Amino acid sequence: MEETQQKVKRAVDSMMDEIDKKHLREMQKRMFECSAKCCSNQHSSREVIENCVDTCNGGMRKAQGQLEMELGTLQAQLSRCAMSCYDDLTKQFGPDTSKYTERQTQEFNERLDRCVAKCADEHVSLLPKIQERFAKFIRSL
What we know:
There is one protein chain. By secondary structure, the protein is mainly α. The chain has one domain. It is 88% helix and 0% strand. It has 4 helices and no strands.
């Protein structure tokens, strides 16, 4: 199970690194430059400066919200898939795992690991689509 979690983590981290390099860094750069210009105005009130900076940060906030939504959805789907694996196995082996023999426990765990690994593979294969949707979202800003 640990190996499967690490595989998903590496795949998501790799996607996030690519998104950061292709999209987020440039957005952050523009956001900081815009915010710096806001702060250069020595004659405006604090409220005007705060509103200006807030406006500069808007695109980055939207991008982060979109990423959080995509990754949250992926995580929820992956969790449901893993839970479905568990539910299917308890239907076959019985609901009380404490009553399994050692052999049943071993078989249950092996089959659960295989099923969850399949879930992970299916969801890792969705990452390019997530990246594609995010790029499209960024272009729409």
